[in-house]
Amino acid sequence: xxxxxxxxxxxxxxxxxxxxxxxxxxxxxxxxxxxxxxxxxxxxxxxxxxxxxxxxxxxxxxxxxxxxxxxxxxxxxxxxxxxxxxxxxxxxxxxxxxxxxxxxxxxxx
Length: 109
Description:
The chain is an alpha+beta fold and 109 residues long. It has one domain (3-102): Conserved Hypothetical Protein Mth637, Chain: A (2-Layer Sandwich), CATH 3.30.1200. The protein is built from two helices and five strands, in the order H-E-E-E-H-E-E. The protein has helices at 3-21, 60-73, and strands at residues 23-31, 38-42, 48-51, 80-84, 90-96. Strands 2-3-1-5-4 form a five-stranded mixed β-sheet, covered by helices on one side.
C-alpha cells in the first residue's frame, strides 16, 4: 500500500471519529512558506503534517492551518481551536465543541 493511501485511510478514520464523538484533538506539524496549503501526510503516530503557503507572521499561518483543517473535515472554522503551539510548528488542535474547561483557549478566526 502506498504512503498516500495510508494517509487517506487515516484521515477517513479521523473524520469518522469526529462524527461519532463530536470532537477530535490532533497533533500537527506545520511547515509554513510551502508551495501550497494542504495536509501533506499522516505520521504513524497520528501526527498530521500540514503545509501552508502563509508566512509565520501575525497569525497568518495559524489561520491557514485552520482553513485547511476546516476544508478537510467539513466543519466551520469557528469549531477549530489551537490548544498549544500558537507560535511553534508543532501544534495541538481541537476540532468540534470544546469542553467548558477549554473555553479560554484562543480560536483563530
